[in-house]
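note to self — DONT lose this again. spent like an hour looking for the file last time. sequence + predicted structure for the chain T wanted, 47 res
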Amino acid sequence: MFTMSFSMVFFILSLALESKELFIIGNVLFIAVFVFKLIYTNKWKRF
């Protein structure tokens, strides 16, 4: 949960600094963490 919040910080920074690269980094990080969490929770019946 904290990693997804951390990736959203890049969204805020990209708006403040008007940087397209920070938005892309935040977006890629958000999607990567989301996919990892989906795979982790659905594999090996952990939860």
